Amino acid sequence: MRKCVGALLLIGLIASVANATWWWDGSADNDWSNTNNWSNGAVSPPATAHTATERMNVPSGTVNVNVGDTVGYLHMGRNDTGGTVGNATVNLNSASTLNVSVATGEIVSVAYSAGTTNALNVSAGRLNVYRGDGTGEVRLNHVYNSTCVGNVSLSGGVIDVEYLNKGDKTGGGNFSATGGTLLVRSTINKFGIASENPSYGFKLGGAELEIASFADRNNAVGNVALGSGQDMDFFMDSTSKIKFDLGNAAGVAGTDWDLLTSRGNYVIDGQLLVNFTVAPTVGDHWDVWTILSGKENTFSGSGTFDTLPSNIQASWVDTGKGTDTLRLTYIPEPATVALFGLGLAALRRSKK
User: Fold this and answer.
1) Residue 296 resides in a domain
2) 2 part of a folded domain
3) Of the candidates 211, 129, 122, which has an alpha carbon nearest to the alpha carbon of residue 164?
4) Rounded to an integer, what distance in angstroms lies between the CA atom of residue 62 and that of residue 210?
5) Among 136, 158, 220, 303, which is 20 to 30 Å from 69 by CA?
6) Residues 269-293: pLDDT tens digits?
7) Rounded to whole angstroms, how far apart are CA atoms 193 and 169?
8) How many whole angstroms separate alpha carbon 250 and alpha carbon 238?
9) Owning domain of residue 188
10) How far is CA 92 from CA 191, 235, 314, in A?
11) How far apart are CA 87 and CA 174, in angstroms?
12) Element (H or E) spanning 11, and its range?
């Protein structure tokens, strides 16, 4: 009987650890994987890797994610219990993958408490924020207060997120994309409009934006909204890239190929990339980006892509709903056209 009771207590302890909320105290060093840096005031630090049910809170200090790990939540600057609330920094700067995934609730909050300025930096490895229903969220600021500042920077590696959310107009924080790849599977929202604040829009400055699907994380088409709760400006500079998967041109946009829908002003520059999921034929076209009239004002846009795939022609068209739509049309490769011309010349010569 005592053995049974002991086994039950052990099972209960394991369950409590598996579902624990861990607080970063940085008492040993800056390494995420050093369990001596984590505590919750009730049980000893975790002895093994974390699980998708565990909550990780970083009230303050600098944390370097140096191993692959899976957790349920990541909240920075949270002051519910334990630790000193101050500036917090989490760095992904090694070839590791951090999976943040849980069934309900906000997943990643970069700034959770008023009066904090926090930073989430990805320069290598991969950050997956994924729930599978389009709501796996990275929120730059949690409390809608200008003193709550959450900055996210992407300079290398990958951020794979379903929902990238600025928070609110009055909340502080910026998304800086100077390198690496941002995969978006549902929405980028609440980065404001230029008429309110010229530095407030969503900006790509050296990174690649790839429209993806939360139905299949590896090879699928996606339907992503840029700004759903309010108008949102979108800016690409000459060092940026945007990538679309192109499928069956006889299908429905957003189902058989990637579809990006945005509200607000836009500036286009940089490089357009495509990935064919089916073999195209000359003349096939895909409407991949629809600019809707904004809720607060009429959108305006300017610029063109610096480079296109050699077999793609891009044009803005009016699809009959008062919107600007970016249409990609499959055209012959220049080499194919040249060979075709040579063939005609040879044919003409043979008839002489």
Assistant:
1) yes
2) no
3) 129
4) 29
5) 220
6) 999 999 998 888 899 999 899 887 6
7) 10
8) 32
9) 53-351
10) 24, 25, 36
11) 16
12) helix 2-18
